[in-house]
Design brief:
Layout (H helix, E strand, L loop, with lengths): L2 H4 L20 E3 L6 E2 H29 L4 H15 L3 H7 L5 H19 L6 H10 L4 E8 L4 H12 L4 H8 L10 E5 L8 H9 L9 E3 L2 E9 L6 H15 L3 H14 L14 H4 L8 H7 L1
Antiparallel strand pairs: 1-2, 3-4, 3-6, 5-6
Length: about 300
């Protein structure tokens, strides 16, 4: 799945700014020092977050009119993200500015709407989908025991103990030099193309069968003994073809392509912003970029 989707840089959840625009004189808070009206709240919010929030609300309305995202689709994507982030899911969504899972779900829905707009015109053949399917490696779950780069002999001794049936988790707790010793060497899921993992480590891990234990593997971090604890099988192609076709189309996208697709939808929607102070909120979608000034280039060539 494309990393631009999983990078957790989705738009923030929508605050109900639009709801503050009606019944301007109605109080939303009362104090002995004076009341706060909806007009005052709207104006204050507009000054602070008006343009980005209006942009968000307009984009959602435009995309929701043309595309539908079901709760099942949101749940499916959410489960995939949870599977890839593991126990770090909650801390990661907090790190990227989401207050809770519901807030993240709102942003996820918006991301899926953008996806559907962007892949609409992406064409792939069945042969391309089959090739993508054949070359795809699903994430695997691994654990390891790691010792110092100078301790190859120790790594071999540990491998010999494993071959005799000694417990992997206990040996990891006894010998490993990293924090995974506290969890029996568990590293969670890894993807074959994730460059955050050492290339030699990935290559060795993906050659293993489920439950198989590697010979000592040298990386820049030390000597590893790797075990694959889960290696899921792909669904048959005929059953999963639609899913892999969708993923292949996504793999052909980048942020620029997504933005261009959303821009086209906004321009077709004939947006007319009535509030003068927010007129420029959608300029990046409604205005074409100005042509570069060629005068400097011309003078530089002389």
């Amino acid at each position: 799945m494309k990393k631009w989707i999983l990078s957790l840089t989705l738009a923030a959840g929508v605050v109900g700014l639009a709801a503050c625009s009606g019944n301007g004189g109605e109080d939303v808070a009362k104090t002995k020092a004076g009341n706060v009206t909806k007009d005052e709240l709207y104006q204050a919010m507009k000054e602070r977050i008006g343009e980005p929030m209006l942009q968000q609300l307009v984009l959602e309305k435009v995309l929701e009119k043309e595309y539908k995202v079901s709760e099942d689709e949101i749940n499916e994507r959410l489960e995939k993200i949870k599977g890839e982030t593991g126990e770090q899911f909650e801390s990661q969504i907090l790190q990227y500015g989401y207050k809770d899972e519901d807030d993240f779900r709102t942003a996820l829905k918006f991301s899926l709407l953008q996806e559907k707009a962007a892949i609409k015109d992406v064409k792939v053949t069945e042969d391309e989908v089959k090739e993508y399917y054949d070359n795809l490696e699903l994430p695997i779950e691994v654990r390891h025991i790691i010792v110092d780069p100078e301790d190859e002999e120790l790594a071999k001794e540990i491998k010999a103990k494993l071959d005799k049936g000694e417990d992997f988790a206990k040996l990891a707790e006894e010998y490993s030099i990293d924090g995974t010793k506290e969890t029996g060497g568990d590293l969670g899921k890894i993807e074959k193309d994730n460059e955050g993992w050492d290339a030699d480590f990935r290559e060795a891990a993906f050659k293993l069968k489920k439950d198989e234990i590697s010979e000592p593997v040298k990386t820049q971090f030390g000597w590893h003994i790797i075990q694959v604890t889960d290696k899921p099988e792909k669904e048959p192609f005929d059953k999963a073809k639609d899913e892999y076709e969708y993923e292949l189309k996504l793999s052909k996208l980048d942020n620029e392509a997504v933005n261009d697709a959303v821009k086209k939808e906004v321009q077709n929607a004939k947006v007319d912003i009535k509030d003068k102070e927010l007129k420029s909120a959608l300029d990046s979608y409604l205005k074409e970029p100005e042509a570069a000034d060629q005068s400097d280039d011309d003078s530089a060539d002389k």
